[in-house]
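pasting for ref
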Amino acid sequence: MAIVDKIERNAAGNILFKDVNDNIISSTSAAGLTVYANGADFIRIQNQGIEYFVIEVALLTRLQIDPAPETAFSGTAQDLIAELSANFFFELSRGGSNVGNDLFLFQNFN
């Protein structure tokens, strides 16, 4: 399975998940995503209740919102969720937590 190195929101509002060579691994324009953080190491992304994929946060190094240039990322799963909710999606709700797992529902800006 390819490693997500970059998350990009393009001019059309689609979210692109890219590898180290900027090849698109996956993309979504879904109205809602669910993001789970397990401790500081991983986030799980679901689309309409179906597992979309898992990102190992330590391997993600870049974020970009077109047309701005990409920026470096280094942080925890919680840092990534904060960045996604502030700049890629807006937060619709936040569910309860258990043993370090937080649930966030996001909606695309578009």
